[in-house]
Amino acid sequence: MAAIDALPPLREVIARHGLAARKALGQNFLLDLNLTAKIARLAGDLSACDVLEIGPGPGGLTRGLLAEGARRVVAVEKDPRCLPALAEIAAAYPGRLEVIGGDALDLDLADSLRPPVRVVANLPYNVGTELLVRWLTPPGWPPFWQSLTLMFQREVAERIVAQPGGKAYGRLAVLAQWRCAARIAMTLPPEAFTPPPKVSSAVVQIVALPAPRFPADPQVLSRVVAAAFGQRRKMLRASLRGLAPGIEEVIRAAGLAPTARAEEIPVEGFCALARRIATAG
């Protein structure tokens, strides 16, 4: 395996710092530095970007991002055991890596980043979906980021890019595809990780659009989608009953059938519903 920088192999780093992955932290480390560099390249030219990385662990993807020319990387790591290893990377790339110790769910990172910003991360499995929903539902649009290049369990990745009509189609697909373009850019088998997870993984690339594909109030749309998919086996007239008076007429006014189910409704249909519900009362 060719080295991407002058730092030691990740297995040596992990052994020296005692960084066995912890299941409680959702840790599965990618040790192949050629693979982490390939993921970094999926995010495009990073030379003029700040990159936000969540859960760098021993720093495999961090090194890939820096070696591929990222202007600056801000890495947020919850596990204090990893901080000395990340400090060694920061010393090897002076002025280009800032490591923040803490839980990404508790931090406001906007002040730490200089636009343009791209998010690239092998997300810890236990917080990945919640972080994604937060990034997809900011108070204003466009968001602070240009693109998200994120590793998920393959099942989650397929839910993000799913089309109407299947079991994978749900809240994540609507939220991602309303204001972004999303695609699966790479798949990885369990044995690519240490320890190997029980499922395959995939890298999803999500690029923010300048404006939503269809007009809708974000908060209303989120409520509609949550209600519809919260009871996805029910018809819309039942799952949306509490959102507006005369819900059957509201659904028809949006151009949809009250007897339809959530998984049949495209993003445009949910936006039409959100607009009708916002004005019903």
Description:
By secondary structure, the protein is α/β, with parallel strands linked by helices. It folds into 2 domains: 10-208, Rossmann fold (3-Layer(aba) Sandwich); 218-279, Helicase, Ruva Protein, domain 3 (Orthogonal Bundle), CATH 1.10.8. It is built from 11 helices and 9 strands. The chain has helices at residues 10-17, 33-42, 60-67, 83-92, 128-136, 154-161, 171-179, 218-230, 236-239, 247-253, 267-279, and strands at residues 29-30, 50-54, 72-77, 97-101, 117-122, 147-153, 180-188, 193-194, 201-208. The chain has a 7-stranded mixed β-sheet with strand order 4-3-2-5-6-9-7. Strands 1-8 form a two-stranded antiparallel sheet. Strand 3, helix 4 (83-92) and strand 4 (97-101) form a beta-alpha-beta unit. Helix 8 (218-230) crosses helix 11. The longest helix is centred in the last third of the chain and has 13 residues, at 218-230. The chain is elongated. The model has no long low-confidence stretch (mean pLDDT 93).
